[in-house]
Amino acid sequence: MAESSKQDDVFPIASIPEGAASLESIVSTEELRRRPSRPPDYEKENRALVALASALTDSSSDIFQALADTILDVTQCDSSGLSLLTRDNVGKKFYWPAIAGAWRPHLGGDTPGGFGPRMPAAKECLLVPFYAEGKAVGTIWAIMHSVRRQFDAEDERIMHALGQFASAAYRTMESIDDLRIEIAAREKAETMLRERATGLEAKIRRLVNANIMGVFIWNLEGKIVEANEAFLNMVQYNHENIVSGSVRWRDLTPEEWRGWDELAVANLKATGTVQPYQKEFFRRDGTRVPVLAGAAMLEDGGTDGVAFALDLSDQKRAEEAFRRVEEKARSIVDSALDAVVAMDADGIITDWNKQAEVIFGWPRPEALGRGMAETIIPVQYRLSHQTGLRHFFKTGEGAVLNRRIEITALRRGGEEFPVELTITPLQSGDTWTFSAFIRDISERRRAEKELRESELNLRQMTETIPEMLWSASPDGAVEYGNARVLAYTGLSAGELMGNGWLKSIHPDDADRVARTWMSSVTTGTPYRVEVRTLRAADRTYRWCVTSALPLLDPQGQILKWHGTIVDMHDWKQAQEEIRNTQVELAHINRAMTMGELAASIAHEVNQPLAAIIASGDSCTAWLANEPPNLDKARTAASRVIQAAMQASDIVQRIRALFKKTPSTTTPLEINDVITETVSFVDGEVRRKGVSLNTRLALDLPAVLGDRVQLQQVLLNLVINGAEAMAGAENEPRLLLIQSALTEPHRILVSIADTGPGIDPHQEARLFAPFFTSKPEGLGMGLSISRSIIEAHGGRLWATRNEPRGAIFHFALPTATANE
Hints:
Blueprint: H1 7-10, H2 23-26, H3 29-34, H4 42-58, H5 63-75, E1 79-85, E2 94-101, E3 124-132, E4 135-144, H6 153-196, H7 200-210, E5 214-219, E6 224-227, H8 229-235, H9 239-243, H10 249-252, H11 258-271, E7 273-282, E8 288-297, E9 304-311, H12 313-334, E10 339-344, E11 349-352, H13 354-360, H14 364-367, H15 372-376, H16 379-395, E12 405-410, E13 416-428, E14 431-440, H17 442-464, E15 468-472, E16 478-481, H18 483-489, H19 493-496, H20 507-523, E17 527-535, E18 540-552, E19 558-567, H21 569-596, H22 598-624, H23 630-658, E20 666-668, H24 670-687, E21 691-696, E22 703-705, H25 707-724, E23 734-743, E24 746-753, H26 781-791, E25 795-800, E26 806-813, H27 815-818
C-alpha cells in the first residue's frame, strides 16, 4: 500500500523489485481509508512529538533516526525509516539516512534496486512524502513484513503529522550543513591568517581591534580579561568595568543558556575549540541580546581563551518581522472567500489556502507540489492550459490574465463545476510565478437557473391568472399589464405604458386618480382608489378598485410597484341593493318596535297634553278674575307653550323613528341617545314589572353616528331584555344600561338583564337573520342591530350575566378615532 502525491519524485521506480507490479497498481489509499480505524492516542502522539522536538534541539545528528524510531513506535510497524534525495539531485538518487526495525542493517545505504533474500519482504508499505520549499525531498515510510496487523486511516493521519516534522528536520539539517560549510570556510581563513601572522597574540589583537564582531579574552573561572569595543557596545559595558573584574561571562549568560555554556566548556577542554552556537547575553540594563558565539583555548591545557560574539539582533528582528508578515499574509489568504492558488512557471502548485481545500477537496500538504492542471483542470481543458502557458512565456500575453473569466474546474472526487478565475503573473528576476483567485459559482449558477425558472413560472402565472395585474417603475410609470388588463381595457401593451393607462379612466375621475397615484409614488404609501374604468367589451364605464404596494430593498428604497385591478361594479350594485334592503328591514323593525311601544308613546304624549290642558284652564281662570291677574295668566300661558313644545319634540322623535330616511352621521353624545331611548321604553318596561336603571359614565367623548339607528339598537336590546324577564316568577327583574370609556378611543355600552340567559345550543345562531326564540318575532332585530353597529365601525356581542341573565355589549369608536 502506498500514499504519494507525486510518486516518481519521492519513491523511484528503482526501489521496486524487478518483475514486481507497477507502483500505480499497488497504490491503495482508498482501501486503507475504508478499513476500520483505531481511535487516536493523542497522549502517545504528543509524547512522541515532544521527544522529537528534544532531539531536534539537543542532537541534530540523530534527528532522522529519532524520527524513524518514533514511526516504528506509534504505528507498531515492523520497519520504518526515511528516504532522502541526494543534495545534488543528480539522477534523483535516493539514500536511507535512518532506518528502524527489521531493515535496520541497511542504514546509510542507497535505496536498493532489488530486495535481497536477507531482507524481509514487505507485505504493506505506508509512504508519506515531505517537502522543502514546495519541492518533494523525501519520504517517511512504515512497512509490515507480516499480516499481524494492517495499516489504517489513523496510521495515515499520524504519518502525515510526522511528515511535517520530517520537513522541519530536513530544513534544520540543511541549515546545520550550511553552517558547517561556513565554519569550515572561516577555519580555513583563520589557518591562512595564522600562517601569515607572527604570533598568536598579534593575530588575536588584530581581530579584536578590527571590531568586525564582538571579541573578548576570558578564562575558565568566568572572568572576562579583555574585550573589544564591539563586544562592550553589544553588552553595554565599558573598559573600566572589565578592568575592575565586575563583568563575568558566566554572569552574562541567562539561566536557560548555561547548559549550552557548560557543554561548550567541556568541548573546549577536550578539543580546544567550540563550534559556533546561538545563545543570549544579558545587557547591563537587564535586556537580552541574541548572539552567535564561538570560542577557542589560547593554549592546549591552559585556562584562558578567546571568544567571538556576533550580534543577531537585526537578523532576529528581520526574521520575526518576516514571520509576522508571513503569518498575517497567510491569515488573510486563508480567510479569503476565494480559493487562492499559486503555481510556478512549470505549473506546479506552491501555495494553497483554506478555501482551496474546501472548494477542491485537496488538503494543502497533498496539493503542494502537484501540477495545477492535473489537480483542478478537467482533462478536456488541460491542453489549453499548457498552450496558454507556453503562449505567455513566448509573447508575455495571456487571454485569461488579470481579468475574471468563467471556466469549468475539477474537484478531487472527479466532479466538474463552474468557477470564476483570475490569474495574475508575478516576475522576480527571470523567475515567473502565478497567483490564481478562484470562486466557486455553483450556487450562483443554480440560483440564476432557479431565478430564470421562477421568472418564467411567474410570467406564465401572471399571464394566465384570472386577475388583472400590473407593475410600475419606482417613479410611477406603468411597465407591464398582464393579458387580462389588456383585454379588459382594450389597450395594447404599448398604449398602456407610462401614463397611457389614464385613457381607460372616466374623464371625471382621471385627475383625482392621477393625483392619488403620484402622492403614493412620492410618499411610498400603498395605493388604493375606486375608479370608473372603461370596459372594452361593451364600451361602458364600470367601477373598479385599483391597488398597488411598493416592493422595497433592505434600505427602504422602492424597487417596483405591483398592483391589481378588480372589477367591483356588480358587487357595488349588490351592496347598494343590500343597503336598501337593510334600510327597509330596519324601518319595518322600528315600526314594529314602535307598535309594541304604543302605550308608552301615548303616555309620553299625554303628559305634555295634560299639562297644556291644566295650564290653559289656569290661564282662563286668571283672566276671568276682576281685575284679571295678567302675571299669573302670562305664567300659565308660558307653561302651555313649553308643554306644547315638549309634545312636539316627542312627536318629532316618534316620527323620525317611523320615517324611512337616509342615514345621517353626526357627532353624538351617547349618554343623550341612551336617555332619549329610555324615555320611550320606560313606561312599557315598568308595565312588564321590570326595574330599569342607568349607570352612565361622565364626560364621555362624542361618537360619530346616526341617532335614529343607534336608538333603534338600544330599543331592540332593552325590549328583548324586558321580554326575556317577563315570564320569570318570584325573581328580581332588573335591567341595567351602562356606558364607559374602556380604551382611549372606544366607548362601551352594556345592557344587562336578569332573565334566563342565553341557551348554549342557540348561542352560535343568536345574531343570524330570521332566528328568534319568540313565537311572534321575525328574528331580524339582533341581525339588524349588529349590521348597524358594524356600519358604525363597532362591534356587538353577548355574554352571560352572573348569577343569571344575559349582557349585550356594543363598542363604538370615538369621533376622534374616526377622524
